[in-house]
Design a protein that fits this description.
disordered N terminus; alpha+beta
């Protein structure tokens, strides 16, 4: 985190992936808004609990009367009253139960948002590493083309190659220089994307550390048991299932509005008119039966029932989505690793072919077209190797994140 902030203010230190994750959870505006949403869940629980407290109110009246004899009198009065609801179809209790469930789900909700933000940060981080290696490859090819251009100039002046060979090599060099420029622009854009995720201003001196990943051993296959456990423990699945429980409690609370209400009420008042001071007080236990209720009550029940069905469907959909994502990541990791191995073999064979064509070209036994085609094929294969390598690393990182990547350890403690 310190290194990252130093980089944001113009420092030259390299930033690790862990530091980027910590900075993202501390600074990302979207995630900070998600954290405020969890505070609203806690506030809702407090409000539901306060509904169980007695209601107390005070009043002051000043009544005016007009009579013939005397023509005018006024009678001020003061009073205080209170009411305690003992039973209302367990409406308040179910509202509290729903609020408790949502409050318990607040950390789970945040964990899901951390997982989403972490995925975006990892993707942006790896994209920088990919394009930095692509820039290194483009720079190396450009330097090789420069040496080959100079070599071709000598061969052309010596008559070993035609003049068109030099023109072809000049065009190859210009294309390689354009590739370098394009790669530089991509790296700058990638850095900007990552810094925007971290809510930091763009800094051209910002740099990141490389990732040390195992590329020699194939990924372990994902068993059905591990996948099911990962799906059920995923924060998005847990949150969706919890919202179903909250929806059931909310429906019970809505139905409670049709139940009788048992309450205790009391009041104390005093009339302060001249010559007729009078105290009034009472305490009563009552029951209210909802004989004819407004359509709002039934609409509330219907809305709660529909919300519950929507929550159940969302829970099922979320579980299927998480399972499908795990299956996709596992399969793509295996495919990327297989592609990585095949690309390695392809690059090695094309590199040998290029050396053969280079030797022929320098002896005049090979045309410039055959040589540049062999070189461009190698460049294309090396680019494919880089993409396969970083695609495999990215899929593996996301798979680890879904399986056991709890993001709580990166949570900012200075809230």
């Amino acid at each position: 985190m310190t290194l990252l902030l130093a980089a944001a203010t113009g420092g030259a230190a390299q930033t690790s992936l862990d530091e980027c994750l910590r900075a993202g959870f501390a600074r990302n505006t979207g995630y900070r808004q998600n954290r405020l949403e969890t505070e609203n869940m806690r506030a809702s629980l407090a409000a539901s609990r306060l509904a169980m407290l007695p209601t107390v109110s005070a009043s002051f009246d000043n009544d005016f009367y007009w009579h013939r004899f005397p023509p005018f009198t006024k009678t001020p009065s003061v009073g205080i009253s209170g009411k305690v609801v003992l039973f209302k179809g367990l409406t308040i209790h179910n509202e509290i139960a729903a609020a408790k469930i949502e409050c318990k789900l607040a950390p789970v909700y945040l964990e899901g948002k951390r997982q989403d933000l972490a995925s975006s940060i990892i993707e942006a981080y790896i994209q920088i590493l990919l394009d930095k290696e692509a820039l290194t490859l483009a720079t190396s090819n450009c330097e090789t083309s420069l040496l080959e251009r100079d070599k071709t100039r000598q061969l052309t002046s010596g008559g070993a190659q035609p003049a068109s060979a030099l023109a072809q090599m000049e065009a190859q060099l210009a294309g390689d220089r354009a590739s370098v420029t394009e790669a530089v622009c991509r790296v700058k854009t990638d850095i900007l994307s990552l810094l925007q995720l971290l809510d930091l201003p763009y800094d051209s001196s910002f740099d990141i550390l490389p990732l040390d990943e195992d590329l020699e051993n194939p990924p372990a296959p994902l068993s059905r048991e591990v996948m099911e456990r990962a799906v059920l423990s995923n924060p998005k699945t847990v949150y969706a299932e919890g919202m179903v429980k909250s929806g059931k409690a909310t429906l019970k609370a809505a139905k409670g509005a049709l139940s009788p209400e048992i309450f205790i009420s009391g009041a104390y008042g005093a009339t302060l008119g001249k010559g007729h001071h009078r105290d009034v007080s009472y305490l009563s236990i009552g029951i209210a039966l909802p004989i004819l209720t407004s359509g709002e009550t039934y609409s509330g029940i219907r809305g709660a029932r529909l919300s519950l069905k929507a929550a159940e469907l969302e829970a099922y959909t979320t579980e299927r989505k998480v399972e499908a994502e795990l299956e996709r990541l596992s399969l793509e990791a295996e495919n990327s690793y297989s592609k990585l191995l095949s690309c390695r073999t392809n690059v090695a064979s094309l590199a040998r072919l290029l050396e053969i064509n280079r030797a022929k070209y320098e002896k005049g036994a090979c045309s410039i077209l055959d040589y540049t085609v062999a070189k461009n094929n190698l460049v294309k294969a090396e680019t494919g190797l880089l993409e396969a390598k970083w695609q495999y690393i990215f899929q593996k990182k996301l798979l680890d994140l879904y399986l056991d990547g709890k993001m709580t350890e990166y949570e900012d403690t200075d809230k």
